[in-house]
């Protein structure tokens, strides 16, 4: 008889004997098991190890082997994890507000809820070629500096166009990682943070996960209102403003030059930071791009954030934070503690991508495609659902912000009715740090396959509006 079959037989025998014992009872010593079952010490050791791996026994060196606590659970019974509610305590990480940003819609559903480019708009060939070239580099799998590859940091510095250099840039794993790092690095848990109202709901989730208290500052067609911003700083004592001055998500608003100067002056006057989220810098629709807040900042008030994910692909998780002074050292320390450094192959692929003429061609083609899609969506809404109010046709970005007639609850009702018609939309409630002032939808025009599908999505939405 083989050793393995002998061990299996002993395991079966011991399992039956253990079933008659109580939890905590001590098993016979290994020497007694050898004598009692006429097997070798190796067989006993293997059998006990197998029982321990199953959780049937617990071995305590120097004391012996004991019957483990039994759980009233079968393979078909769900585990009782209710104890975790007490252990976890108060909820600070709430992913419910961002679930719809990532949840794939059911098959045959037209998505107007997405925040990423449809595959047909992504530079897939250029991405594949860049990744292939990066993988062939002899140092492709070496570690990188904590701040990221110098060549990639230099490219982000040039992209920003302000008076910054590679040493001011910290490479991140996309924009959401940059948000999380910045919030945790700049503001202490429990402190207030000023945010536009409405604002990107992923930023609200990241701020709350960092233990911060988002305080809304209303915006209008030209972005955040400086008069209300000054009041908010004065009443809350906040030392951080999160804002999106260019192609604001979700409204598409662009902060005009005069307001930009006012926002900077207000923050400087109270000694506060501005986290400038420039996620849509490469998502313009062909017109001139707004000037960065960073470009007019001489004293380190602005911490700048951008990313390659939106204009390229959801899986190109490469972003950057640009900062100067002690806050830059704080951000690098956070990166070091979090995960030491980012994986090199994806950074190398980003360097390759940004260095090729194909990237510039992609951006030019993308600008035209986004402009056409934006116009198509806005036109279809005006024709099919004229009672809905579009906040404005943006000159960049991926979304339209639409106000619905009726109470706040009507947005959820419309979204549910739309789902029944086979179209996915994002309700506006999650974009407000406090109570929403009305019913809103954020409608995306970049996640559909083509213009025809975009128009069909609006047609289905009109049916949903009538179904209510």
UniProtKB/TrEMBL annotation:
SUPFAM superfamilies: PLP-dependent transferases, Winged helix' DNA-binding domain. InterPro entries: Aminotransferase_I/II_large, HTH_trans_reg/aminotransferase, PyrdxlP-dep_Trfase, PyrdxlP-dep_Trfase_major, Tscrpt_reg_HTH_GntR, WH-like_DNA-bd_sf, WH_DNA-bd_sf. Residues 4-70 form the HTH gntR-type domain. CDD domains: AAT_like. Keywords: DNA-binding, Pyridoxal phosphate, Transcription, Transcription regulation. GO terms for molecular function: DNA binding; DNA-binding transcription factor activity; pyridoxal phosphate binding. In the C-terminal section; belongs to the class-I pyridoxal-phosphate-dependent aminotransferase family. This is DNA-binding transcriptional MocR family regulator. It comes from Actinoplanes lobatus.
């Amino acid at each position: 008889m083989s050793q393995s079959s002998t061990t299996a037989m002993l395991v079966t025998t011991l399992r039956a004997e253990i079933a008659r014992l109580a939890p905590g009872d001590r098993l016979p010593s290994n020497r007694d098991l050898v004598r009692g079952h006429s097997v070798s010490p190796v067989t006993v050791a293997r059998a006990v190890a197998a029982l321990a791996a199953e959780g049937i026994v617990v071995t305590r060196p120097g004391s012996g082997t004991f019957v483990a606590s039994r759980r009233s659970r079968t393979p078909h019974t769900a585990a009782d994890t209710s104890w975790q509610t007490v252990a976890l305590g108060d909820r600070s990480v709430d992913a419910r507000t961002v679930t719809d940003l990532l949840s794939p819609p059911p098959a045959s559903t037209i998505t107007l809820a997405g925040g990423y480019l449809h595959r047909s708009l992504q530079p897939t060939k250029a991405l594949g070629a860049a990744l292939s070239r990066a993988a062939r580099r002899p140092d492709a799998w070496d570690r990188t500096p904590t701040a990221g590859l110098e060549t990639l940091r230099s490219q982000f510095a040039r992209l920003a166009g302000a008076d910054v250099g590679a040493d001011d840039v910290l490479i991140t794993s996309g924009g959401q990682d940059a948000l999380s790092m910045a919030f945790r690095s700049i503001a202490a848990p429990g402190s207030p943070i000023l945010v536009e109202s409405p604002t990107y709901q992923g930023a609200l989730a990241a701020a709350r996960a960092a233990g911060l208290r988002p305080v809304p500052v209303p915006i209008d067609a030209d972005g955040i209102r400086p008069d209300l911003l000054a009041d908010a700083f004065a009443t809350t004592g906040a030392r951080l403003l999160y804002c999106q001055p260019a192609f604001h998500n979700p409204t598409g608003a662009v902060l005009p030059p005069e307001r930009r100067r006012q926002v900077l002056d207000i923050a400087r006057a109270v000694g506060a930071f501005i986290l400038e989220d420039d996620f849509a810098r490469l998502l313009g629709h062909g017109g001139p791009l707004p000037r960065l807040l960073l470009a007019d900042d001489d004293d380190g008030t602005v911490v700048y954030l951008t990313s390659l994910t939106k204009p390229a692909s959801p899986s190109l998780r490469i972003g950057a934070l640009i900062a100067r002074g002690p806050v830059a050292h704080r951000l690098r320390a956070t990166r070091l503690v979090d995960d030491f450094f980012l994986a090199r192959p994806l950074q190398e692929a980003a360097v390759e991508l940004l260095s090729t003429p194909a990237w510039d061609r992609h951006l030019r083609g993308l600008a035209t495609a986004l402009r056409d899609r934006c116009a198509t969506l806005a036109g279809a809404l005006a024709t099919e659902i004229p009672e809905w109010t579009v906040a404005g046709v943006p000159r960049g970005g991926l979304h339209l912000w639409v106000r619905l007639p009726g109470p706040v609850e009507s947005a959820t009702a419309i979204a549910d009715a739309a789902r029944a018609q086979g179209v996915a939309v994002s309700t506006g409630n999650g974009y407000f740090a406090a109570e929403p002032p009305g019913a809103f939808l954020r409608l995306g025009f970049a996640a559909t396959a083509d213009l025809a599908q975009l128009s069909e999505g609006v047609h289905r939405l009109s049916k949903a509006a009538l179904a209510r």
